[in-house]
Amino acid sequence: MLQYVIWDINPEIFHIGSFSVRWYGLLFAMGFLIGMQIMTYIFKKENKPVADTDTLLIYMVVATILGARIGHFLFYEPEVLLHRPLDVIIPPYSGLASHGATIGILTALWLYSRRKGSQLTNQTFLWVTDRIVIAVALGGASIRLGNLMNSEIVGRPSDVPWAFIFMNNTEYAKIPRHPAQLYESLSCLVLFFFLLWFWNRHKERTPRGSMLGIFLIWVFTLRFFYEYLKENQVAFEDSLPLNVGQLLSIPAVLLGIYFLVRSYRIPIPQADFEDNPKELKS
């Protein structure tokens, strides 16, 4: 039976001169690359132009990075955003907020759907978001694994047999703690497989907004409770009844409930099946 796990993984894979390749960057990039392959598969299955996945990838990369960076400074370090706004786009990207990334992605997909939704491809906002959350769930698992490799976003002290001692985290070293990053990574991985199964079962008949709703409810409900197991990111959170991550998760869950309930009350337009008549026979 494990007493604890000594976690002393070097966050750097290798370096050449001043250039280094880190696990976090590799896992971050892999999330996008694998996600694009997933979206390509979905576009083929639902008879959408595969070339559009290149445009979609650009929207997603820009939205994720900008949204996460702006969100971090807006929610956790607003004084930096006010006095040094260029820090948002200047490396290293040491602060990324998942709530900010969520807002950025939803905004970008709305803009993307404005271009594609009215065309013959019929890529409406809810059609795109219902599919992209499959890739985002896998990307979330990959990014949280990157946080684990960086020994960051650590949990509170714990005596559970799987507790980690983060040797490379000078602030929280030598005390067994919850591997909160691993909890979130595994949760996202479970969500990825469920959403992929759900889509594979329904495809064009997927109720519009249902998968987006499931994603928001699952991710941010768990995030709310995981925050009880994690150290606060900034000092001012210590005086709050709920930390920033929990406060931001509440509206995200409510939005997810709205989309999920709405999805089963509004029928799918028959026009959505016209691009792939084979699905009507299945």
TrEMBL record:
Pathway: Protein modification; lipoprotein biosynthesis (diacylglyceryl transfer). A 1,2-diacyl-sn-glycero-3-phospho-(1'-sn-glycerol) binds at residue 144. Its EC number is 2.5.1.145. One of its GO terms (cellular component) is plasma membrane. Keywords: Cell membrane, Lipoprotein, Membrane, Transferase, Transmembrane, Transmembrane helix. One of its GO terms (biological process) is lipoprotein biosynthetic process. Pfam families: LGT. It is found in: Cell membrane. The chain crosses the membrane at residues 23-43, 55-76, 96-113, 125-143, 180-199, 211-229, 241-261. It is a multi-pass membrane protein. The keyword Coiled coil does not apply. Catalyzes the transfer of the diacylglyceryl group from phosphatidylglycerol to the sulfhydryl group of the N-terminal cysteine of a prolipoprotein, the first step in the formation of mature lipoproteins. HAMAP family: Lgt. PANTHER family: PHOSPHATIDYLGLYCEROL--PROLIPOPROTEIN DIACYLGLYCERYL TRANSFERASE, PROLIPOPROTEIN DIACYLGLYCERYL TRANSFERASE. Belongs to the Lgt family. This is Phosphatidylglycerol--prolipoprotein diacylglyceryl transferase. The lineage of its organism: Bacteria, Pseudomonadati, Bacteroidota, Cytophagia, Cytophagales.
